[in-house]
Amino acid sequence: MKKQIHLNGFTQNSVAPHSPGLWRHPADQGYRHGDLSYWIEMAHLLERGKFDAIFLADVSGVYDVYQNSYKPAIRNAVQVPLHNTLLQISAMAANTQYLGFAATYSATYTQPYKLAREFSTLDHLTKGRVAWNIVTSYLESEAVNQGLKTRIEHDKRYERAEEYMDVVYKLWEYSWEEDAVMADEEIGVYADPEKVHPIQHKGEYFSVPGIHLVEPSPQRTPVLFQAGSSSRGRDFAAKHAEAVFTTTQNTIAELKAFSTDIRSRAKKFGRRPEDILIFPGVVPIVGATEAEAKAKYEELKQYVSYEGTLALLSGHTGVDFSHYNPDEYVENLETNASRGFLHQYTTVNPEKKWTVREAVTHHGLGIGAWKVVGTPEQIADQFESMAVEGDVDGFNIIQAISPGTFRDFVDYVVPELQSRGIHRTEYEATTLRENMFGKGRVRLPSNHPAKRLGSHLSREAAKSVR
Ligand SMILES: Cc1cc2nc3c(=O)[nH]c(=O)nc-3n(C[C@H](O)[C@H](O)[C@H](O)COP(=O)(O)O)c2cc1C
């Protein structure tokens, strides 16, 4: 069987989240993001294309690094206005049967006890179709508006997130035994309290003594996505993630180096290389002919807002690019924001130096992801080479215009991938983890680190009984 390609549709609950300025394109409908019909139509479209999931990015602050001001972000709708990322999922789930929902939530700014409850609830409501994109967050504005004096230091955010994962694993995997819910009307017991365990977590950052509030959901732990690209972020991904999202590679050699690195780090944590699916982001631009696709690409670029992209890029990297002239090189920089985004323009390819203008032009259409421009056949060829030679498992499709990029892809490229036998024509199952890893794998596999907390928990429980 040929290598199968998985697909996610990448978006966010805002106007033109990943391509600043494209809201001005006559075909763009991002302005409808506050309208449930927009999300339901999008979910139908992606399910028609047999996508694994809709992937919802999120931040919880404004992009105010550029010019030390929130005004450029407001003017250009750079991820603001920005609505909640979970609330539209129930409506999409009610209107689909198979599509998964990968939602971004910050491990730095949500308490694990609360996050565990929200995702368990959604896993019930969607019948096992939820994923969590674990982020540690990069904006200072997220920290100061949520009660912190300043952003926690980069590696410390990951260290804290390690303990965070222990807490949510304990809640999801161990608090409720599988048969705790009895609903026995005769004896009048709904759930057996002996089978619902306080997790007794007391660590450096979190204290959660009690039980999880939600009974086991179909997947228990949602499918775990992660997108950190720094060395610390990659270790975190290699330990916890079942799928890694990346946009920072733009050649097959760079992709191959990334996937080799993630897969070899996975071994350090007792996992197999194939336990992690790798999804590079791509912006597909489809035409009936190559010339038409190229013309479309040129047309889309005209709508990219230079100022809006500077606001986005400055927020991603933590570098205020208003202090640079457009032809200056982006180099010799370090950051406490997202190292992955900054390194894309400084170190990923030592042969290539980026000027600010080049970085902005590239980042402005799909947050610096690879642009795959051509006929459906050419795009399918490119996907096959990236998947096979770059050793990746699928693609996060990033929009230039919404939902036009998804629609063109589903109408023209998906049939080509299907006719080559490299993308499903029917879903394999109804839970997200099974659609990603194969029928029968509803829950985390036994070699996942979450599964190693079990013996520790029984020791804690024994201690608390004594
Ligand atoms: C492709 C991609 C998408 C990301 N999406 C989000 C997002 O929606 N919200 C967020 O807070 N961080 C997002 N991030 C940031 C990371 O997940 C991570 O928390 C941050 O980059 C810091 O880690 P790093 O320095 O290891 O890259 C994204 C990163 C990448 C590369």
TrEMBL record:
Keyword Flavoprotein included in the entry's annotation: yes
Biased composition (Basic and acidic residues): 457-466
Binding site for FMN: D58, T104, H154, Y158, S229, S230
GO molecular function: monooxygenase activity; oxidoreductase activity, acting on paired donors, with incorporation or reduction of molecular oxygen
Superkingdom in the source lineage: Bacteria
Span list, region Disordered: 440-466
InterPro entries, alphabetized: Diverse_substr_monoxygenases (IPR051260), Luciferase-like_dom (IPR011251), Luciferase-like_sf (IPR036661), NTA_MOA (IPR016215)
Coiled-coil annotated spans: none
Keyword Iron-sulfur: no
Residues in Luciferase-like domain copies: 23-386
Alphabetic keyword roster: Flavoprotein, FMN, Monooxygenase, Oxidoreductase
A UniProt-annotated Pfam family: Bac_luciferase
CDD domains xrefs: Nitrilotriacetate_monoxgenase
Family statement drawn from the similarity comment of this UniProt entry: Belongs to the NtaA/SnaA/DszA monooxygenase family.
Protein name: 5,10-methylene tetrahydromethanopterin reductase
Organism: Novibacillus thermophilus
